[in-house]
Amino acid sequence: MSDLPNCPKCNSEYTYENGLLLVCPECAYEWSHLEAGDAEQVRVWKDANGNILQDGDTVTVIKDLKVRGASGVIKGGTKVKNIRLVEGDHDIDCKIDGFGTMQLKSKFVRKG
C-alpha cells in the first residue's frame, strides 16, 4: 500500500508522485508535498545579528534584562555558556551565575 496522501479534491487513493508534485489520476489535480503537510518543518534559531544558534553555544546578552521575581537585572555583556534551544516564546534554556536556571529570548543575545 502507498503511504501517499489521498487527493484533497476528490479523495482518491490512487495518487502518485511526478517529480516534486503529487498527482491524482482521477481528477487530474496536482499539489505539492508542502500543501499535503508531508514536509517536516525544521526550526532554525537565530540571534540578534542573524547568526544561527545551536545547542551548547556560548552567547552574550546584548541589553539589560529585568528578571521577574528577582531584585536585580541581567546586565548586558553577561556571557551564558552551554545553552539549550527549545520551542516557545523564550527559546533558550540556560543557567546564569547568580540567577540560576532561566529562559531567554534569542533576540536578546548574540553568539560568541
From TrEMBL:
Domain annotation Protein YjdM N-terminal: ranges: 4-32
Pfam families (UniProt xref): YjdM, Zn_Ribbon_YjdM
Domain named Protein YjdM C-terminal: residues: 46-111
Gene3D superfamilies: 2.20.25.10, SH3 Domains
Family per similarity comment: Belongs to the YjdM family.
Protein name as catalogued: PhnA protein
Originating gene: phnA
Organism classification: Bacteria, Pseudomonadati, Chlorobiota, Chlorobiia, Chlorobiales
Highest taxon in the source lineage: Bacteria
InterPro entries: YjdM, YjdM_C, YjdM_N
Species whose genome carries this gene: Chlorobaculum tepidum (strain ATCC 49652 / DSM 12025 / NBRC 103806 / TLS) (Chlorobium tepidum)
